[in-house]
Amino acid sequence: MDSNRLLKIGLFGFGCVGQGLYDILAREKNLPYQIEKICVKDPNKVRPLSSEHFSFNPEELINNDELDLFVEAISDADEAYDIVSAALRKGKRVVTANKKLVAYHLPELIALQQEFGGVLLYEAAVAGGIPIIRAVEEFFSNEPLVRVHGILNGSSNYILSQIFLQKKPYAEALKEAQDKGFAELDPWLDVAGADSRHKLCILAAHAFGRPLAPQEVAFFGIDYLGARDLEFARLNGCGIKLIASVHLNESGQIVPLVIPALVNETDDLKVVEQEFNGVIAEGTYSGPQLFKGKGAGGHPTGAAVLSDVISIGQGYQYGYKKLKRSQTQPALALDYKIEVYLRTADPKLIDVLEFSNQRNIEAAADSDSVVGVLTLESLIKHQDKIREAGAFIMALSSDFVKKKAVKQQEAVALT
């Protein structure tokens, strides 16, 4: 292919990410890429471009042989799967920002690339503008990784920053994140931890050669964060971050988890504030390296999409090196132990979880707070019960394994 030829892009979706990419390409006139056609769903929606730019039929783009590559940037994961899989079956080159799509279908998407010769890149699906997939795929291609963990959701991190730095209540911080475009009108994926879970599934495949199914990963969020939980963190000189983590234990089993965690002033992730993401990739020999960048917003994510567009135009594709080297897939380390804090209005939940080393932290008329040790198996098995109870759970350290002495709140009896 002529490297100087203008490459024509078929774009699916014109929301935050799609418009971010369009705006960047409009500004960067020297780049040999042009969005030729944009496929959108609602023909009646008012848009900033004239109607000739748009199509309402995905097949019109997929079957257009004049288009050199596709960018998928729609919110519906099922529709995105239909588009991406159809394009790959035609041997097309595709860039997607849809982390749920990749998390649920990665093994199949890899197989489609191998069978039909298409290429799929998805850097923008994980950690916004941080090139973390490329880092673990290429830089750590031969060095064993100890752990990859960090803040993978800019919306929840922005909310936590407003709560701890600006002393704003949760509801106000959430509304502000929505007004700024960091959080959706339905913020459940962000604040409940599901979005971070999707991204962690993808990272695990590149970092440890183990694609994780979303149902294998227990996830908890900040949606039930309350005043007593904030006071517990402050009493212990800590903030709270929503941490997504994956590592192998000493037996070579995999430990994936998304959970809020206490972070103190010495924690590398403490400096990651507002809508920023931060990921620590810890190599066996090179040690921990912190990658920090904006994880929300049209331009940061659009820039990550553009990086994939340029790379795919130059012939790059993922090698899935660690996945191909893996002789057997590591099992989940179900007996892995994590020290946690739990506040719940349902005392039966504490018994169901089967804590070890349990200590009561606070007793109130409307809830009880305890700390203790839970296994990964218990967290996976009972995660829905914890959410249904409206309980708030967090790890006592972002390291999970390091025990931390905690100060006890004075018991409060409310009427």
From TrEMBL:
Residue intervals of the Homoserine dehydrogenase catalytic domain: 131-310
Leading EC class: oxidoreductase
Associated pathway: Amino-acid biosynthesis; L-methionine biosynthesis via de novo pathway; L-homoserine from L-aspartate: step 3/3; Amino-acid biosynthesis; L-threonine biosynthesis; L-threonine from L-aspartate: step 3/5
Swiss-Prot/TrEMBL catalytic activity: L-homoserine + NADP(+) = L-aspartate 4-semialdehyde + NADPH + H(+)
Pfam families: Homoserine_dh (PF00742), NAD_binding_3 (PF03447)
Top-level taxonomic group: Bacteria
Keyword Cell division: no
Family named by the database record: Belongs to the homoserine dehydrogenase family.
Protein name, entry field: Homoserine dehydrogenase
